[in-house]
Amino acid sequence: RTSTKLSRSSTSGSNSIRLVIFDITDGYPHPLFNERVFCGLGTGLGETGALPQEAMDRALAAIMRFSQLAVSNGVDRLEAFATSAVRDATNGGELLTAIQSMTGCPIKVLDGQEEALLSAQALQHGLHVEDGIIADLGGGSLELAALHHGEVKQMISLPLGTMRLQAKMSGDMAKMKKEICATLDEIDWLGKYAGKTLFPIGGAWRAFARLKIKESGYPLDIIHGYTVPVDSAVETATLLMDLPKKSLADLENVVRQRRMSMPLTGLLLNELTDRTKPATVTFSAVGVREGYVYGHMPRDQIADDPLAAATSAFAERESRFNKTDEALLQWLSPVLSVENRRRRRLQLAVCALSDIAWRDHPDYRASFAFDRTIEYPFFGIDHMERAFIALTIYLRYGGKPSDKRVSHIGSLLSKRAIRRAETLGFGLRLAYRISGGNPGLLEQSRLEIKDDQLSLILPGGGAAPMHERVARSFERLCQARKIKMGPITEAK
Questions:
Q1: Burial zone of 466 (CB within 10 Å; 0-12 exposed, 13-18 middle, 19+ buried)
Q2: In this structure, is the dihedral angle defined by the CA atoms of residues 166, 171, 175 and 181, taken in order, positive or negative?
């Protein structure tokens, strides 16, 4: 397929500069390349109000490399933008002029309102949510936005970035807390959204989430969609606030440039949760850069559902018979409970991915399919949905729910969800046993429920694989569905 790429090379971070190359062919920004360079542009904002010359030199060197990478990767469109550090610095214009002179690429400086709006819009697509408080924390600023019924109702940018505060207050936690509290207390709408989810966005929050994942023994090492109870998040934040510098320096799961700011990150999280009273805290790996890409995509080219778009494109690239998800779901409909849109959405995604490993060695198909689906950067799903998809695909390729390889995700799914995964996974295995994935053969067979038992009608005319492997797969499906096994017959 022809790939449309949109690259963003940016001075957006007060702490780092990042190049991301996105493929937008499928209606959402799928990252093809992602590289970050820590430059520390915001280190001088709290003290002098200017960008340090050494940091600007590092930034220019990084951007020169990024512009060459973009060209060599055949990027169709190059966009660059800057955020808090550049817009607030007295010498920000000097850096912008140098970048444009060196690369020929104009730099857009986002204002605080734009930054908050783009982060909120990215979250809407990236996690498929309509309500909550978004908190985008950078080195120079903190952007807050409120989502209500799919609309961004409130937006504000605050000078509470980690680098800015640390420089301004010389790292004094008491002074920083006073500044944070005074600033947040002036926002009268924070308490109006109590009971919603708080969505932390940005590198500092991602570092916090990574620590929390390791500390808690969480089964997935994936930040995007990672949800924790508020009390648990506050507990970890409080522990970080009290860590001595020696302990901070030894934090293995945090990049060196962020370690000393972790107590402040914890303090900000505690003060935000105290005022927003969220039901849960959900971290996101998307942010202003994805929002910026969405903002430059034509409206009619943006996928309504990024999960459906991703799995459909996956099927087109990887499957033998292209688009068979609807046919598979229809064939399995007698044993599936399609009670709501969310469940059907997941079932279709699984069906679209069900031929993902046909090229691989039979002995490794189940494990490969599981690893790929559990780790793939899907948009628009939470961790429970990700676990459901991966477990179901694993079962479709002959795995068992009790296998050690998948046992670690059991805590993410309810017993009913696991049973639904078994029904769908074993049902797909049966469908492929009968048809080999060919929709034409699948249409010649069917499942029927009559008199509280499930019957299987196979293709006639000699096309039916009448052997014990089909019977065994059918039996496993009946056991998962908790229904009496009926006869297996051949269509006349």
A1: exposed
A2: positive
